[in-house]
Design a protein that fits this description.
heterodimer, A: alpha+beta, Arc Repressor Mutant, subunit A, 3 domains, three-stranded antiparallel β-sheet, elongated, B: 510 residues, Amidase signature (AS) enzymes, 41% helix
Chain lengths: 476, 510
């Protein structure tokens, strides 16, 4: 291939805000729940009902805007986006077109070539739609309005990204910022963070943008990366064969590893946006912005600096732990209970990350409490349990936040520190393994490992391996 | 005095004094309904049994001393675009023919708290779109002053019901004159409050930025009393304004000394029926004699009000009415193929021609490429009109003019010429665009005996000035004959005879 192509990518990211109630009514935003139980006249579009803005939505949107260096619109409005669909009970979505709450921000990401800024074109507030349930055995479709009116912000980036790596870095950065702010849990799988990818290609060095497509239905970072690669290839193939890229919306099928066209620009709907007359303009004064600014939590860069000052742990640990606000909070809370920071960090960096990865979970999903982690560390410190028992207990704790003290007690996992009892077992092991004993005595240092193992086995793991080793050497 | 001839406050007082029982009051209204409804058709839904049931409950609470207000036990009629829990609410549209709300409009709740007994829901132009009540999907309402004439609209059922004694007062809604114009045509008092004064929660929206709920009553005292009951700040309505000046009955003072009254020349130009002009100006002279400072002035921009209104109102309506799609409630077409065909057929069959016309008009002015030229320009006109009124209210307390260019037209005359019907709203529409309070009060009758109303417009939240001025006029005019403002109620059998009564009464008026 003679020509070199550059990929140009912009993102539209929807984030479900972590408010307790919906954006325009008092219904619960809780996930799950029997269909149509978190509903009222407002979020089901009953005649005569009226929306009232949830102030918390505004606070979260402004917090995200401030954390991404946006200019906050002091006098913003809501607009109606009109389109007919059954999941949209009023047949218009209340959103923001003309005066979005935040504009002109940026987010710094790390790339192969160093740091880079991705521009944020705007952030606007809007309501989520309900969910259609296509009943396969009945000839009908059902609607669940529990999600209708759940608050969203849509973060629209500039077309500043050039590769899937940059896109993932941008998304991870956004997710981290928003999680730090507590504005959302940003779970792609559960749909609390959703990204649509706008992508075009152009010849390297060209100043013009190519025709772009919009890719929808991307439910994981991996799917996003795969979709970007595939769409880049598809567009290049079209251009190489002398065809034009059609401006259209495409749907990604991650199982097939390909996308198909949903609708082209020609049949794009006219949404007839206009200011929603049921909502008054939102005027943000200095005092309000100051209040939000004052309430902004410590973000990651400051936290990393502070950890360097306050905790004696390696920079690498700080980097990993502070990637998630929840992980960092857990770390600090456990250390505050008196556990040695490095030991806390070891549990988080080691078994926690391993289990998260194995179970395909986010750090935000960690369920064990700092109290229980501190207890576990104390148990090992006191040599009440040995490290392999500790890891076993930790796995249980990771599943369902049990109290490790009680668990060790109930299961009888305490290390036997009674030297007499242990000595007796060691003597039995020596008697039963003459060959290994002979090997050791003839200088084969490794043979003692086998004998330690046999002793631990006989003790059902409830012995301190150091003590076993010491006793063996003494008796041999 | 017969119960049926009492005003709402007179009846409420008699109930408090145990001179009249609530059930007796309800029965009187139901008897009148029984007698007249077949001809006038004021109601689309009647709830006789429910009303008698409410009457028993309310009487108990009155006897227990829980309800002591002037409206306790007084039967009311509610315009059919106000949600009433458990009672059909159709907006006089086929598309909502079976819709029973799960909640009541805040204004209705407020009245029920005051002990009101709801008789039923009144007929209206479909979704409040019209000026004659002829666009109702459930048949026309006739003007009690002359059944060959319309009652006005869109709150025609409410106005006619009050005029005919089929209720003691009613609630209506006013988007471009829909309370004031039918009040004028039916010879009753109608008040459109300041935008934000009465909660719109539960009012099925036509033009959200213009809609306002208000009372239609037999006299000014009733109007002030009902407004006092329904004006509350409602956190469920973002456009509801918290106010403390809601003691409207305190403005029932017969005194206009020093009241500055402006007469906009623009409201007395071409198209105004000379009889209406004469009757309206007579009010100005009478108030001047009582010490009001009356002068003419130029309001300007009046000719732009109608295009701006029909742009903004239809744009909002096109969006507000999208929820009626056959999915969740209301009418769904019998046969269809797929979702979009279902939408199309349900909406084409469910909405009447005037509603379809306004939805199309509104969709057009919002469509991409036309938004700036139509909708945004209309919003700018709206702002300019508000400014013109602001300037006027620096000089005047009240602006006085006609409500409508003519008295009630004959049935069938208006719908054939929608532009003419739209032009009939010329004096009422600017008030909605500026969000102002305005009131219509009877001021005479034309040669046919049909009532003429005078319109009083106030600055935002200055309803009291209107009430005081209207009350004074009512006192000036009153005294002569108590029956003056009551149509000679006729039964279907005496229809022709009744028509003859009108002009005769009108002659006296001259």
């Amino acid at each position: 291939m003679a020509k070199q192509y550059e990929t140009v990518i912009g993102l539209e990211v929807h984030v479900e805000l972590a408010t307790k109630t919906k954006i325009f009514c008092g219904c619960s935003t809780a996930f799950g729940g029997e269909p149509n139980t978190h509903t009222c006249p407002v979020c089901t579009g009953m005649p005569g009902s009226l929306p009232v803005l949830n102030k918390q939505v505004l606070e979260y949107a402004v917090a995200v805007g401030l954390a991404t260096d946006c200019t906050i619109t002091r006098n913003c409005k809501f607009d109606r986006k009109n389109y007919f669909y059954p999941d949209n009970p009023q047949n218009y979505q209340i959103s923001q077109l003309y005066l979005p709450i935040c504009r002109d921000g940026r987010v710094e990401i790390g790339t192969e070539d160093g740091k880079k800024f991705v521009g944020i074109h705007e952030i606007h507030m809007e309501e989520d739609a309900g969910k259609l349930i296509h009943d396969e055995w009945d000839d009908c479709t059902l609607v669940d309005y529990n999600r209708s009116g759940v608050p969203l912000i849509e973060i629209v980036s500039e077309p500043d990204m050039r590769s899937s790596q940059e896109v993932i870095a941008y998304l991870e950065k956004l997710r981290m910022i928003i999680q730090y702010l507590g504005a959302s849990d940003c779970k792609l799988q559960e749909g609390s963070m959703r990204a649509d990818v706008n992508l075009s290609v152009r010849e390297a060095g060209s100043g013009e943008f190519g025709t772009r497509t919009e890719m929808k239905n991307l439910n994981s970072f991996k799917a996003i990366a795969r979709a970007i690669e595939a769409e880049r290839e598809r567009q290049i193939d079209l251009l190489e064969s002398g065809e034009a890229v059609v401006q259209e919306t495409r749907r990604w099928d991650d199982n097939q590893g390909e996308s198909y066209a949903m609708r082209s620009k020609e049949d794009a709907q006219d949404y007839r946006y206009f200011p929603d007359p049921d909502l008054v303009p939102v005027v943000l004064d200095d005092a309000f912005l100051e209040q939000i600014r004052a309430r902004q939590p410590e973000m990651r860069p400051e936290k990393m600096l502070r950890y360097k000052r306050e905790f004696d742990i390696p920079d690498y640990d700080i980097e990993i732990i502070t990637e998630s606000r929840h992980m960092a909070d857990l770390f600090e809370a456990t250390a505050a209970l008196g556990s040695q920071p490095k030991k806390v960090s070891n549990w988080l960096m080691g078994d926690t990350l391993r289990l998260l990865k194995e179970r395909d979970m986010d750090p935000g999903d960690i369920c064990f409490s700092p109290e229980n982690l501190a207890r576990l560390i104390a148990l090992t410190d006191e040599k009440a349990i040995n490290s392999s028992v500790a890891r076993e207990v930790f796995e249980v704790m990771f599943e369902k936040d049990i109290d490790p003290e009680k668990y060790v007690e109930e299961k009888g996992l305490k290390t036997v520190n009674d030297e007499g009892a242990l000595r007796a077992v060691v003597e039995q092991v020596i008697a039963a393994n003459p060959q290994s004993v002979a090997d050791f005595r003839s200088g084969k240092e490794k043979a003692i490992g086998f004998l330690v193992g046999q002793t631990m086995k006989a003790m059902k793991g409830k012995a301190d391996p150091g003590m076993v080793n010491q006793l063996l050497r003494e008796l041999l | 005095m017969k119960i049926i001839d009492m005003t709402a406050v007179e009846l409420g007082t008699a109930i408090q004094n145990r001179e009249v029982g609530v059930q007796e009051a309800v029965s009187a209204a139901l008897e009148r309904i029984e007698e007249k409804e077949a001809l006038y058709h004021c109601y689309v839904t009647l709830d006789q049994e429910g009303a008698l049931g409410q009457a028993r409950e309310v009487q108990k609470r009155i006897d227990a001393g829980e309800l002591t207000g002037a409206l306790a036990g007084v039967p009311v009629a509610i315009k059919d675009n106000l949600c009433t829990e458990g009672m059909l609410t159709t907006c006089s549209s086929r598309i909502l023919y079976n819709f029973v709300p799960t909640y009541s409009a805040q204004a209705v709740v407020n009245l029920q708290r005051a002990g009101a007994v709801i008789l039923g829901k009144t007929n209206m132009d479909e979704f409040a779109m019209g000026s004659t009540t002829e666009t109702s999907a459930f048949g026309v309402t006739r003007n009690p002053w002359d059944p060959e004439h319309v009652p006005g609209g869109s709150s025609g059922g409410s106005a006619a019901a009050v005029a005919a004694g089929e209720c003691f007062y009613a609630l209506g809604s006013d988007t471009g004159g829909s309370i004031r114009q039918p009040a004028s045509f039916c010879g009753v008092v109608g008040l459109k409050p300041t935008y934000g004064r009465v909660s719109r929660y539960g009012l099925i929206a036509y033009g959200s930025s213009l809609d306002q709920i208000g009372p239609l009553c037999k006299d000014v005292r009733d109007c002030a009393t009902v407004l006092e009951a329904i004006s509350t700040h409602d956190p469920k309505d973002s456009t509801s304004v918290p106010r403390t000046d809601t003691d409207f009955t305190s403005a029932l003072v017969e005194d206009v000394t020093g009241m500055r009254i402006g007469i906009p020349r623009d409201y007395f130009g071409e198209g105004l029926d000379p009889q209406v002009r004469e009757a309206v100006l007579k009010v100005a002279y009478a108030l001047k004699e009582r010490g009001a400072l009356v002068e003419e002035f130029d309001l300007s921009l009046v000719e732009y009000a109608i295009p701006a209104y029909y742009t903004i109102a239809t744009a909002e309506a096109s969006s507000n009415l999208e929820r009626f799609d056959g999915i969740k409630y209301g009418y769904r077409t019998q046969e269809y193929e797929g979702l979009h065909n279902m939408y199309k057929k349900s909406r084409s069959e469910g909405f009447g021609p005037e509603v379809r016309r306004r939805i199309m008009l509104g969709s057009f002015v919002l469509s991409s490429g036309y938004y700036d030229a139509y909708y945004l320009k209309a919003l700018r006109v709206k702002a300019l009109i508000k400014r013109a009124f602001d300037a006027a209210f620096e000089k005047y307390d009240v602006i006085l003019g006609p409500v409508a260019p003519t008295t009630a037209p004959r049935l069938g005359e208006s719908l054939s010429d929608p532009i003419r019907m739209y032009l009939g709203d010329i004096y009422t529409i600017a008030v909605n665009l500026a969000g102002l309070p305005a009131l219509s009060i009877p001021c005479g009758r034309d040669l046919k005996g049909l009532p003429i109303g005078v319109q009083l417009i106030g600055d935002c939240f200055r309803e009291k000035k209107l009430i005081q001025t209207a009350y004074t006029w009512e006192k000036i005019r009153g005294g002569s004959s108590p029956d003056e403002d009551t149509p000679t109620v006729c039964s279907p059998a005496r229809k022709d005879e009744c028509r003859d009564v009108g002009p005769a009464a009108g002659k006296e008026e001259r």
